[in-house]
Hints:
metal ion binding; 31 strands; alpha/beta; 4 domains; Elongation Factor Tu (Ef-tu), domain 3; globular
Amino acid sequence: MKLKSLTSTLLTSSDIVKLSLANIQTTEQLITHTDYESLSRQTEQANVLLDKYIRNLFIIETGSKEIDELISNGFYSNEISEITGATSTGKTQICFQLIVNMIVKHSHYNCLYIDSNKNFCEKRIENLLDYKISKNELKIDKSQKINLLKSINKIDCSNIFHLNDILFSLTKSSTDETNNHQDSIKMPNLLIIDNITSLFSIFKSNSYTEVNFNLNYVASYLKYLTNNAKMVILVVSNRSNYENLNNNFNLTNNPIWSNAPNLVVCLHKDNSNLLTSRFKNVVLDDNKFSSVLKLSYHYSNSSVLCFESKLNFFKSTNSCTFSILTVLNSAQKENINIGTIGHIDHGKTTLTAAITKVLSEKKLANYVSYEKIDSAPEEKRRGITINLMHVGYSTEKRNYAHVDCPGHADFIKNMITGTSQMDAAILVIAATDGVMPQTKEHLALAQAIGVKHVIVYLNKADLADQEMIELVEMEVRELLAVYGYDSEKTPIINGSALAALEGKNESLGKESIMKLMDTVDNYVPSPERDTKSPFLFPIEKTVSVPGRGQVLVGTVARGLLKKGDPMEIVGYGETIKTAASEIHVFKNSVNECAAGEHVGILARGIKPGVVRRGMMAAQPNSTVQTNLIEASLYVLKKEEGGRKKPITSGYIQPLLTKTSSIDSYFKLPEDKSMLLGGDHVKLNILLKSPMVLSTGDKFTIRETLTLTSCTGVVTKILPNSPEKLIGFNATAIKKPIPNKK
């Protein structure tokens, strides 16, 4: 196996046992074993999830019977004991330590491995290497052995700790319970505590009293780790271990991990009777682990599972299942941004409410009523949606952030903001009306902004006859073709959102909603997320929290942000320094957000009125504000909803991109006296105020309440200099400022 395979795959104890069947005898053979590639191929999808979700990996391993079985199968010979005098437990530590060190050495992840005494293992690694060399089982010379040992010893100890490091080294160096744990390690996304009963037996024993051992500090340290991991997995190995713990030991409500974002408890089947009275939700399952996890993941903050654990953390029906990746495949669903667009009164908000109601019956969402979505006083008075409304829900496959876009022409700016956040759109069309003005305009804007996938929901199908529905479907497919969508492959679902809400006409009501969500799951591909670039977050709106700051609401455009990270709020020529005090996703506190997630970020110390829509929250010193860009522009034809008259130099209209709307001033090329509908042109655009823009950003030019005149993409960020401004009548434009990083 190539080293690259190791960097995207984590081996568990059980996986190594499986490899032993191929008579792998040495670490060198483990790394070069070609048969292992078949395992990698079978877990390709899981590896993608690993790359996406486990940027930092944290394992606590306090015991492993699986490795003992591995040794008996010949992975490392029992003759180890002749050289080292090691017990069975010692051989377990040596074997696992070698493998983990190799994985860490060649991995780009931040792997934190906690096991037994570090020095104990390292000495035995050297003895083991000497023994294998003497038997010609490991063909490396002395210098290669020294380099191997050096590479192990040089592994950054901020990334690798062992159980005794936590219990002794850390407590020796600091007995202050308020010590800042953040200085110790980078925070993990996944925390696995195997054989949790062995770990906690330490807390009730007196065997460590001769050492400066501060239990309160250790508990505080572990609590900090569990609170900052995205998922915590606890493994209770067998019945006897649990019975040995006193009755006050409570897994779900233990203060060390009671605030973990997602808690999974893995129990031996025999423990179920003992634990039923102590767990809120205990689910017994021997075979269908994935389905159980999907079900219980939505119950509450702490989801509890109970199933048989034999040669793996989780009993597997497939011989090649990777336990940790199984958890991620089920629990760490990808986040998709979707929304409803379409003409006013065609049922967008009703459909949004219906989706949440139907999914709530499957424990996949909280029901959000029509009245709650249209909650603003003006919306209630006029009976229309004005502002964007976000709701969250899940299917068996994905998590969705759903934006309900305004259909009324007066509030099309809000609709553009909503569309710019979408990975896909649900175009709602009333079967009783067919295509209407905002239907065309919303579809045109979605196409211009870059929404590549559209699903059509023909609403109010219970009020139209079959002939009418067929005519509307033909009209819709013609419209899709006009705006560049695949008219033949685009799914069209007939239904009635109101019937789904009221529990009537199941085939057109509830069943149509389930068919719609199944179509979205399978038709919309997984979007590519840029999590490696510096953090950038277009601000959609702000909410004031008295005494704490402002909550910035929007969708992360790129990068990652962790709680406590510094930020800059930039835009309109301003730069405001702050930090992320809290991060929330649909009212749930999280420790980190990533590209594609719709979140609320509490910006520390920001006064009301300082931050406005269109500004960006960004990683410090990662953005440039500019008021001069080069753009590739397309002028819409009259039949596409564009203007009738030509555009001339000096044309000033609002430019809408991401969440901002800013006046823009056109400077036509010298060889163009005017632009007509259908023209493609490259030109310079001057903005009224400096904004954060990047090459590749898409925008629209909105001329009136009902007219979009142009769409375009930024091709170059230009410096603000007098030479570049020649030919601009800049009297109506704010004086340019120099670019500053």
